[in-house]
Recover the amino acids of this structure.
């Protein structure tokens, strides 16, 4: 087998004919502590016939009115980073109170950028609050810092929504 690199559109089409973008990551799980959100997921069920999988975490920030969202920008810290991940986990830090954050986890491979279809993703939405009446034994509260009050998990192209309302 000889590997050929090309910029020819026809050659790229033939490459895509035998491989395809991956499906969405599966089994998104989260862990919350007093300062961080830890996201973990399983590889997609369909890798597109390729082994060069990477992951990206796209963050959208909304106020209490979820109809107006914007990119999170540089406000949050992602460890190790938010894109080009080869492992299936990320730690998110530096949340702001009274904000809805949506994290979309996408799997990508070498032909993902050549596809015209929307990238399938698995997502989680978390809501932060600054309510000092929460039970500090269950979820320690940082004075003046945000705490998580609601978590929703969903996958694009499915009708199933898993919803937790954390009443701590």
């Amino acid at each position: 087998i000889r590997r050929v690199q090309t910029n020819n559109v026809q050659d790229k089409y033939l490459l895509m004919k035998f491989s395809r973008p991956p499906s969405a990551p599966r089994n998104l799980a989260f862990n919350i502590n007093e300062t961080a959100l830890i996201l973990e997921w399983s590889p997609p069920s369909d890798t597109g016939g390729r082994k060069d999988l990477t992951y990206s975490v796209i963050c959208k920030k909304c106020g209490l009115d979820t109809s107006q969202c914007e990119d999170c920008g540089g406000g949050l810290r992602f460890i190790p980073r938010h894109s080009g991940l080869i492992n299936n986990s990320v730690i998110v830090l530096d949340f702001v109170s009274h904000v809805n954050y949506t994290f979309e986890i996408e799997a990508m491979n070498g032909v993902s950028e050549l596809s015209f279809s929307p990238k399938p993703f698995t997502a989680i939405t978390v809501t932060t609050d600054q309510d000092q009446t929460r039970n500090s034994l269950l979820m320690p509260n940082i004075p003046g810092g945000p705490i998580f009050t609601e978590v929703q998990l969903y996958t694009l192209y499915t009708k199933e929504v898993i919803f937790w309302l954390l009443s701590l």
Q: What stands out?
A: Residues 9-18 form the longest helix (10 residues). The chain is about 5% helix and 40% strand. Residues 132-144, 158-168 have pLDDT under 50 and may be disordered. The radius of gyration is 19 Å.
